[in-house]
Amino acid sequence: MTGTEVGELDRTLEWLVGPALDRLAGRLAEVADLGAAEAGALLSATRGALAETLRRKVVRVLVLELHGARLTGRLTAPDPRGRWDEFLRRAAEPAFWHDLTAHYPHLLTRLRAVVDNRLGAALALARRFAADRPLLRDLLGTDPGELREVEFGQGDSHRGGHTVTVLRCAGGVVVHKPRPMEVDRELARLLAVLTEGDDRPIRVPRAVVGDGYGWAEHVEHRHCADDAELDAFYRGLGHWLAVMRLVSGTDLHAENIIACGPVPVVVDCESVFTPRPPHPPTGAGEATDLVAEQLTGTVLRTGLLPGRGSGLGWRGVDGSAMGGLPGEQPAIGLPDLVGAGTDQARVAIVPRPPVPARNLPGPRPRLVRHWPRVVAGFDEMAARITGLDREGRLEPLLAPFADCVVRVVVRDTEAYAELGRMLWHPAGLHDQPAAEERARALLARHSVNTRGPGAPEVHRGEVADLLVGDVPVFTTTPAEGFLRTGGGLVCGPRVDQVRLALERWRTADLALERRITHAALVSAYLNQGARPELGRMEAAGEPDATGLDGRRRALAARLVRELAAEAVRGSDGTATWFAPILDRSGWQTTPLTPDLYGGTLGVAVLLAAYRREVAAGRADPVAEVEELLAGTVATARRTQVWWADQARHTRRRPDPVGSYIGLGSQIWCWLVLDRLGLPAVEDAVFLAGQVPAALAASEGPDVVVGTAGAIVPLLLLAERTGETRYADLAVEAGRRLAGDAEVEGGRARWPAPTWPEGIGGFAHGATGIGWALARLAGATGEGAFAELARGAAAYEETWYDPGSRAWRDPREPGSVVAAWCHGAVGIGLATADPDVLRRAAASGLRDGTGWTHTLCHGDLGTWELLVRALDEGVAPDGVTREGLDAAVLGSVEEHGPTTGLAREVYSPSMMSGSGGIAYQLLRMHPGSDLPSVLLLGDGPR
Question: What are the Lantibiotic biosynthesis protein dehydration domain coordinates in residue numbering (predicted)?
Answer without folding.
Answer: 104-476
